[in-house]
Specification:
Layout: H1 3-13, E1 18-24, H2 30-42, E2 47-51, H3 62-73, H4 78-89, E3 96-99, H5 102-108, H6 110-119, E4 124-126, H7 136-145, E5 148-150, E6 152-153, H8 159-168, E7 173-176, H9 191-201, E8 207-210, H10 216-223, E9 228-231, H11 233-255
Parallel strand pairs: 1-2, 1-9, 2-3, 3-4, 4-5, 6-7, 7-8, 8-9
Helix pairs in contact: 2-4, 2-11, 6-7
Length: about 260
């Protein structure tokens, strides 16, 4: 069973779709990042994506890079993420998945990471730089702990890769809407719609689209064909510019796009 998949299915059955909101832990400091995540839960975000700051964030755009580098410069260390996660999950039932490049997991120890993630109330892990055929250790650890594992699918993925991502993922498949790095965009790439269609053909029942979503109308458009819309940079920018209250307001505005009927 997957708490994340259950929430997405509930939103779909209600005639809508899920809003997934990303924020980095430790920005602008650990305590504030906890309150910011809770503000997402209180303002219509259905799944929280908690990013781990990393020294070489090759997939992240400038907004997220600045935030994660701020956290690292202030001395953020990986064990603090589990403390923050536990603080969040003790105060909300909204499932929280951790987003991280895989090297920190390897350095921490895959089984140890899975155990600490589960103990802190986490629902699973998104690994943007890990492909299923190189994930045997994580696959075993996630099976043992019951954690979700979310793999990415891109417009350039072959049919075999899409089938592999669908078969290996639990919770949802992360459909990258366009080639490149994260960051708010004024228009959504039509490749996202095509990619979700290909994922459906590969057997996906829960495909969520990320990279570039920044407005309620984009959320609404994505949810007309996908199961979830993932927003990151727009929320991080709101937190950077206006603090916790601003990120709550931004989440509420984005959540208005989930009202499909």
């Amino acid at each position: 069973m997957s708490r994340v998949a259950d929430v997405i299915a509930e939103r779909k059955s209600a005639g809508s779709g899920a809003l997934i909101g990303y924020l980095p832990v430790g920005f602008p400091d650990v305590d504030t990042s906890v309150e910011a995540a809770l503000a997402l839960a209180e303002n219509g975000v259905d799944v929280i994506e908690l990013g781990l700051p990393y020294s070489d964030p090759v997939m992240d755009g400038s907004v997220i890079q600045r935030a994660t580098q701020t956290a690292l410069s202030q001395g953020f260390r990986l064990p603090q993420a589990f403390d923050a996660l536990a603080a969040i999950t003790s105060r909300t039932d909204v499932p929280v998945v951790v987003m991280t490049y895989f090297n920190p997991v390897l350095q921490y120890g895959v089984d140890r990471f899975a155990d600490d993630l589960q103990a802190a109330g986490g629902a699973g892990l998104i690994t943007p730089d890990l492909i299923p055929d190189e994930a045997s250790e994580w696959m075993s650890a996630s099976e043992r702990t019951g954690l979700d594992r979310v793999f990415l699918a891109a417009p350039s993925s072959t049919e075999a890769r899409l089938e592999q991502a669908v078969a290996s993922s639990r919770g949802f498949v992360y459909a990258v809407s366009t080639m490149g790095i994260t960051g708010a965009r004024t228009t959504m790439d039509d490749a996202a719609r095509t990619l979700v269609g290909r994922l459906r053909d590969a057997g996906a029942t829960s495909a969520c689209v990320g990279l570039g979503i920044s407005r309620a109308e984009q959320v609404r458009d994505v949810l007309s064909y996908a199961d979830g819309a993932i927003v990151g940079s727009a929320l991080v920018a709101a937190l950077a510019d206006g603090g916790v209250s601003a990120v709550g307001e931004a989440a509420a505005a984005l959540a208005s796009g989930t009202k499909l009927s």
